[in-house]
Specification:
This protein has 742 residues and is α+β, with helices and mostly antiparallel strands. The chain has 3 domains: 318 residues, Kinesin motor domain (Kinesin); 158 residues, no CATH class; 69 residues. Helices cover 59% and strands 17% of the residues. Strands 5, 9, 10, 11, 12, 15, 16, 17, 18 and 20 form a 10-stranded mixed β-sheet that branches. It has a 3-stranded antiparallel β-sheet with strand order 1-2-3, with no helix packed on it. β6 and β7 form a beta hairpin. The longest helix is centred in the last third of the chain and has 124 residues. It is elongated and about 180 Å long. 23% of the residues are buried. InterPro entries: Kinesin-like_fam, Kinesin_motor_dom, Kinesin_motor_dom_sf, P-loop_NTPase.
Length: 742
């Protein structure tokens, strides 16, 4: 990364810019045509844009509902009204949303246009700001029923990519950094290497050492965001403290090139920040640092970006455009309002001040390919000059060496090289997550069943679809026959009441009615058979799906199991409703048949006695009483069902919370064991080093002592040799004197 900090020399051709004096009727912005390397394209020049500020009120939680808390904020148009001690304070914003507003609507009305600008080459940022527990992360993530900002944003990006398929090539990469107490952590690849914030004239402010992973599809981009969010939660031993102090910045980089020969493309960045709220503890939190920056921008003068790593990383987001010297962009700030007066007041004041911030917006051109080509041509030219000219200067050689280094740096930023690094990061992150003991939980996904099982389910679905088509067609015929039967009975009754019908006509009409009734009866039986077949196929399909789900369910995925069980209960409820509706339809049909039969009999002259009428009245009274009892039983069952569902959801929530606590305890225990293991390992290694040092010292001592003994031995040998030599010499010189003495 150290080499990447070097500024590329401008060795390529100058860019020709031709201004076209036209104005749009919508935004009144000037346009110009950019011509580079023979490619003509229309772009929008840089412009200034104010930061868009949005206020969103969160609903009451269960504890606040149980205490019957009073809401202190309300929405009135584009204003938020804060109530306290009988006084009201009003704050204006670009958009204001009440507690029941869905996250999808917030995205569509406030963020979708920014994403479209990002896809056209502008940098954009989305900041979620508010007190701890106000719902920032929930607004960004959302739920399955109401997706948040990030899922909607992801869908919009790949919808645009699919529409431009064949016209452009795209390269999407992401990074995810977490900042806690000034410490940087790579959420996608939690390694232990040092990470530093650096600034580069072309790259702007970035984190050196942060992993960048390639997202080749919408599912992969969503998966990386979910896994990074899960790693943030699972990688801590104190979830409550982590929640108060954790800041996260998720960055999506979009690069695009036309499939034509043009080597100039567009690049843009979408920055999504979740800024931690007030922790209620001593010392400044990130929200306060951000408040100081926004206040300084409004007042003018020195802006304390460097007081916090979060504000340092977001410097390009919250900067008055006249002061910006890095990447300019469009910004939206989402202020989530809590029910605490002090925190809400603080949030509203900061949001009010943020509306005065202006950013400078411009297109970001991706000139990597053009730069590589120009560098290669320049290197080839100098190499040819050096080969042909014998009197080449030293400056030419040094220049070519610098160009080769710049070419290597430029090639490291190509799509192919970054894909290679992304694959390496994928391998590293699995190892790093495993070392932290959270690999299974972070990478938790449902695998597909085997091919044979999937094929059986598909065949059953096709058979079910065909039966459903037949069932609907038969049902349509039955409905038409019922209408025809009712019409004929009505006409026959009117004719009989008028007394104008002859015997032959009456007989023919009665015969036609009986014939339609027989046909209707046969069609009804066929309809019942089709319904039975549909039920059998549905039961088989459910069995196969349960088998598939049971065989591929990942261990520990309680949330997925709960979701599947909830869907199964909902499906069973829908089936029961459909069955009751069919039975009611059947009873209605039988009742209509009976009524038609009675009408025919009456028209033929049948009379009912007073005793029959009284009997029918008594039966009707009994049926009405039974109906009231059944209705009451149904209401009671519905109430019991609601209570059971509420209890079930509460039990699931408690179980989920307890399971998360157990998981965190397990992770903490694992880390403690690992810490003890590391400590014991260090003790053993230290003891080994001490023993090794002692052995080395002993070896040195023994070697020295051995040398000393060898020297002493050599000295003794020399002494013995000299003494022996002297004795021999003396004996040789005085042989007679020795004999005389004897």
């Amino acid at each position: 990364m150290g080499q990447a900090l070097k500024v590329f020399p401008r060795v390529y051709k100058a860019m020709l810019v031709e201004w076209v004096c036209t104005r749009s009727q919508t935004d009144r912005l000037s346009a110009f045509t950019l011509r580079h390397c023979g490619c003509n394209r229309d772009y929008t020049p840089s412009e200034s844009a104010t930061v868009r500020v949005v206020a969103k009120c969160r609903p009451f939680n269960e504890e606040e509902q149980s205490k019957s808390c009073k809401r202190i904020v309300k929405v009135s148009g584009d204003k938020i009204i804060l109530e306290a001690a009988g006084k009201e304070q009003s704050y204006g914003f670009d958009y204001c949303y009440a507690t029941d507003t869905r996250s999808t609507r917030v995205y569509q009305e406030t963020c979708d246009s920014l994403v479209q600008r990002a896809l056209l080459g502008n940098n954009v940022s989305i900041l979620a700001i508010g007190a701890t527990g106000s719902g920032k992360t929930h607004l960004l993530t959302g739920t399955e029923e109401d997706p948040g900002i990030v899922p909607n944003l992801t869908s919009a990006i790949y919808k645009y990519i699919n529409e431009e398929q064949g016209k452009k090539n795209f390269f999407i990469s992401v990074s995810f950094v977490e900042i806690i107490d000034g410490e940087l952590t790579d959420s996608l690849n939690p390694h232990s290497n040092e990470m530093k914030i650096r600034e580069h004239p072309q790259l702007g402010i970035f984190v050196d050492g942060l992993s960048e992973l390639v997202a080749g599809s919408e599912e992969e981009l969503s998966r990386l965001y979910e896994q990074g969010s899960r790693a943030r939660k699972m990688g801590t031993s104190d979830a409550r403290s982590h929640r108060k102090r954790s800041n996260a910045i998720f960055t999506i980089r979009i690069e695009q090139k036309e499939t034509s020969a043009n080597r100039v493309g567009l690049r843009s960045t979408i920055t999504i920040a979740d800024v931690a709220g007030s922790s209620g503890e001593s010392g400044k939190d990130e929200f306060e640092h951000l408040s100081n920056v926004i206040g300084a921008l409004k007042r003018g003068g020195h802006v304390p970006y460097r007081d916090s790593k979060v504000t340092r990383l977001l410097q390009h987001v919250v900067s008055i455009w006249l002061e910006v010297k890095v990447i300019e962009e469009r910004t939206i700030m989402l202020f989530i309002l809590d029910n605490c007066y002090q925190e809400t007041l603080r949030t509203l004041q900061v949001g009010q001040a943020a509306r005065s911030i202006k950013n400078k917006v411009k297109l970001n051109l991706d000139e990597t390919e053009s730069m590589i080509q120009e560098l290669r041509e320049e290197i080839a030219r100098i190499r040819t000059k050096l080969a042909k000219n014998s009197d080449s200067t030293k400056e030419d050689v040094l220049k070519m060496e610098d160009l080769i280094k710049d070419l290597q740096i430029a090639k490291s930023n190509t799509w192919e090289e970054r894909k290679r690094r992304s694959r390496q990061f994928e391998e590293d992150r699995k190892m790093n997550l495993a070392n932290k003991g959270i690999l299974e939980w972070v990478m938790d996904t449902v695998q597909k069943g085997n091919k044979e099982l999937q094929e059986r389910i598909l065949l059953l679905q096709k058979e079910k679809d065909q039966l459903m088509v037949d069932y609907k067609e038969r049902r349509r015929k039955v409905d038409e026959m019922k209408e025809d039967l009712q019409k004929r009975i009505s006409e026959y009754s009117k004719l009989a009441d008028s007394g104008k019908a002859g015997q032959s006509e009456t007989k023919s009409r009665v015969s036609a009615i009986h014939e339609i009734k027989e046909k209707l009866k046969r069609e009804t039986e066929i309809l019942k058979d089709l319904k039975k077949k549909l039920k059998d196929i549905h039961d088989k399909q459910r069995t196969e799906k349960e088998t598939a789900q049971g065989s591929v369910m990942v261990k520990g995925n309680a949330e997925l199991r709960q979701r599947i069980e909830a869907e199964e209960r909902k499906r069973l409820e829908m089936e029961n409703k459909a069955m009751i509706a069919d039975e009611l339809e059947k009873m209605k049909l039988e009742t209509e048949h009976a009524k038609a039969e009675i009408q025919v009999q009456v028209s033929q002259g049948k009379e009912y006695s007073q005793e029959d009428a009284m009997q029918h009245e008594m039966e009707l009274a009994e049926l009405r009483g039974e109906k009231a009892v059944v209705s009451l039983q149904m209401q009671t069952l519905q109430q019991e069902k609601e209570v059971l569902l509420r209890d079930l959801n509460q039990v699931y929530k408690r179980h989920k919370e307890e399971l998360e606590i157990q998981q965190l305890q397990h992770f903490q225990t694992f880390r403690q064991y690992r810490q003890v293991f590391d400590e014991q390992k260090n003790v053993i290694e230290q003891r080994y080093r001490e023993l090794l040092e002692d052995a080395v010292q002993d070896a040195i001592f023994l070697s020295t002592r051995n040398n000393e003994l060898m020297m002493e031995n050599q000295t003794l040998k020399q002494g013995v040799f000299l003494e022996s030599h002297c004795c021999t010499l003396h004996a040789w010189q005085h042989p007679v004197s020795i004999e005389t003495e004897h």
